[in-house]
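Severity: low
Component: inverse-folding endpoint
Summary: output formatting inconsistent between runs
Steps to reproduce: submit the following structure tokens with default settings.
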């Protein structure tokens, strides 16, 4: 999936404005429904879907960014567009800040995995340094589209090839690294993984009388590890290692993370649960 190809440039706006969340969602629904890409989905239907999603938890994720999204029965292909609100919109965001940058994601009802890949791509885009500032400063839809394309041209998802597999283990002690690694795996087309939560050695050693006084300073949250297990294409091993290190930092220079890969001689079945 090429993320840039999903962007509906005719729906991009750099002068979006709304008094509150409800008005913002109504305007988003009206704008999207005006496009033939929506396959006949009406403004009312789309607004109801967006409101239904917001009722679960606000898509205002913080930092002035919101990602309203919905799955639609009559949609043929995913549709993504971006709105810049120079004055901000009160959107009940998780951090209570006004939203100035909206990524709207609409996807077919039966293609959950593709929607997750798009959301993961957006997450990786907004994590890129000063990109958010660059998007907010754009003065035309054309320029904004160019900025997005440039941001994604070197980081697009490559399809997983069939054939030989490796078993990937990623052991992580930091919750933020776990989220980043899972986003990367989804972005790379991995639609299923198993996660083990366990205790690290420090949790036990710190309770041994001989070591307790030396290790008592260890933070409790660093004694819990998360191990992600997934099957990956063997020929893509180094790409996966590089992508994970982009999240954790160089593994030969940091602590709290490890990657192990093993050759797989036989497997049957699948861990995919979001396809």
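Observed output (run 2 of 3):
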């Amino acid at each position: 999936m090429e993320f840039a190809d999903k962007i509906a440039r005719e729906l991009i706006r750099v002068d979006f404005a709304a008094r509150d969340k409800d008005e913002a969602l109504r305007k988003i629904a009206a704008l999207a429904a005006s496009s033939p890409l929506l396959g006949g989905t009406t403004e009312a239907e789309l607004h109801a879907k967006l409101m239904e999603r917001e009722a679960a938890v606000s898509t205002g994720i913080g930092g002035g960014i919101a990602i309203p999204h919905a799955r639609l029965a009559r949609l043929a292909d995913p549709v993504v567009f971006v709105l810049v609100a120079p004055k901000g919109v009160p959107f009940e965001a998780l951090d209570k800040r006004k939203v100035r940058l909206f990524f709207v994601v609409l996807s077919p009802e039966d293609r959950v995995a593709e929607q997750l890949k798009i959301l993961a791509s957006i997450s990786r885009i907004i994590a890129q340094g000063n990109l958010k500032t660059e998007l907010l400063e754009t003065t035309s839809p054309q320029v904004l589209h160019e900025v997005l394309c440039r941001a994604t041209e070197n980081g697009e998802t490559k399809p997983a090839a069939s054939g030989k597999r490796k078993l990937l283990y990623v052991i992580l002690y930091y919750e933020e690294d776990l989220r980043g690694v899972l986003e990367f795996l989804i972005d790379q087309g991995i639609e299923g993984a198993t996660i083990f939560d366990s205790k690290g050695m420090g949790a036990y050693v710190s309770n041994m009388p001989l070591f307790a006084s030396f290790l008592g300073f260890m933070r409790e949250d660093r004694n819990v590890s998360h191990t992600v297990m997934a099957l990956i294409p063997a020929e893509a091993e180094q790409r996966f290692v590089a992508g994970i290190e982009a999240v954790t930092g160089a593994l030969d220079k940091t602590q709290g993370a490890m990657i192990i890969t093993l050759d797989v001689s036989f497997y049957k079945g699948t861990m995919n649960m979001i396809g």
